[in-house]
């Protein structure tokens, strides 16, 4: 779906999320949301915060799982995804802090494998993701599933692609300071979500959007695996869709 601009598109996405939360509330059920970081979802979070403040949208029944976190990364660092999520969403809504799950960039390397298995199990035990919000990196990554990621991959530690580090270098004052690794949900974790919405804005995403939507399905561009998910929508602005 192509929108005039990201502001209009983000309101539509926020409305879908709000509807889902409310319909789960009516059934007395939890709403399990998979959330993303990066610049793409910021306007969606702004709109959800507005709906909470002005329309009384409650997040009491919401359980969230974030896609990824740099590794290693202290939670309090303003470069952490932990910080980002609190800054843009969690500090402004009525979610129970116990219901917030973000991969922990401070876990010791010895405990990491078990930690990733537990993160995966926690999603399953919560009933699986009802909705997964995604951005896309210029390498075709979703979460931090870089080229080479297997369709069956689960939550794990990965090595960041050079292009991803270039794109993150602005946040870290130079590429040399960008962490080399990250913890990410896997491709299979994402594909098990009942509903997926991927958002992309701007001309610099146009090439990867074309290859993701019109190219062959391949682990060279992990986002192409979404072609085989039966309930995925790509939400684009005009520039991001300009090469389709
Ligand atoms: C990071 C995140 C991804 C995100 C991507 C795109 O790599 N791990 O989840 O989709 O950046 O970021 P942006 O939305 O800023 O273009």
Give the SSE map.
Layout: E1 2-3, H1 6-26, E2 31-35, H2 42-55, E3 62-66, E4 68-71, H3 81-88, E5 100-101, H4 112-125, E6 131-134, E7 156-159, H5 162-172, E8 181-184, H6 187-191, E9 196-200, H7 206-214, E10 232-237
Parallel strand pairs: 1-10, 2-3, 2-6, 3-5, 6-9, 9-10
Antiparallel strand pairs: 4-8, 7-8
The structure holds 2-amino-2-deoxy-6-O-phosphono-alpha-D-glucopyranose.
CATH fold type: Rossmann fold
- Total discrete domains: 1
What's the CATH first level? Alpha Beta
Bound molecules: 2-amino-2-deoxy-6-O-phosphono-alpha-D-glucopyranose
Number of E-state strands: 10
Helix content: 25-40%
Low-confidence stretches: none
Radius of gyration: 17 Å
* Large-scale geometry: globular
Question: Per DSSP, what share of the residues sits in E-state strands of 2 or more residues?
Answer: 15-25%
Provide a concise account of the structure shown.
The protein has helices at 6-26, 42-55, 81-88, 112-125, 162-172, 187-191, 206-214, and strands at residues 2-3, 31-35, 62-66, 68-71, 100-101, 131-134, 156-159, 181-184, 196-200, 232-237. The chain is α/β, with parallel strands linked by helices and 244 residues long. The termini are close together.
Q: How would you characterize the overall build of this protein?
A:
It comes from Flavobacterium gillisiae. This is Glucosamine-6-phosphate deaminase. This protein is of the alpha/beta class and about 240 residues long. It has a 7-stranded parallel beta sheet with strand order 1-10-9-6-2-3-5, with helices on one face. The protein is globular, with a radius of gyration of 17 Å. It has 7 helices and 10 strands. The protein has one domain: 3-Layer(aba) Sandwich (Rossmann fold), CATH 3.40.50. Bound molecules: 2-amino-2-deoxy-6-O-phosphono-alpha-D-glucopyranose. 2-amino-2-deoxy-6-O-phosphono-alpha-D-glucopyranose (GLP) binds near residues 37, 38, 143 and 144.
């Amino acid at each position: 779906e192509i929108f005039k601009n990201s502001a209009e598109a983000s309101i539509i996405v926020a409305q879908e999320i709000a509807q889902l939360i409310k319909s789960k509330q009516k059934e007395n059920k939890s709403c399990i949301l998979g959330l993303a970081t990066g610049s793409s979802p910021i306007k969606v979070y702004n709109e959800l915060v507005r709906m909470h403040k002005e329309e009384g949208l409650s997040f009491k029944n919401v359980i969230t799982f974030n896609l990824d976190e740099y590794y290693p990364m202290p939670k309090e660092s303003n470069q952490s995804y932990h910080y980002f999520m609190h800054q843009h969403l969690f500090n402004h809504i009525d979610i129970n802090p116990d219901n917030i799950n973000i991969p922990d960039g401070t876990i010791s390397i010895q405990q990491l494998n078990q930690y990733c298995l537990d993160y995966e199990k926690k999603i399953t035990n919560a009933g699986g993701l009802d909705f997964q919000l995604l951005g896309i990196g210029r390498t075709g990554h979703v979460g931090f599933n870089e080229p080479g990621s297997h369709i069956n991959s689960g939550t794990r530690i990965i090595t960041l692609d050079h292009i991803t580090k270039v794109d993150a270098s602005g946040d870290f004052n130079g590429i040399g300071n960008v962490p080399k690794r990250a913890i990410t949900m896997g491709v299979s974790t994402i594909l098990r979500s009942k509903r997926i919405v991927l958002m992309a804005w701007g001309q610099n995403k146009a090439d990867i959007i074309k290859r993701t939507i019109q190219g062959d399905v391949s682990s060279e561009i992990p986002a192409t695996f979404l072609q085989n998910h039966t309930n995925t929508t790509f939400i684009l602005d005009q520039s991001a869709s300009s090469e389709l």
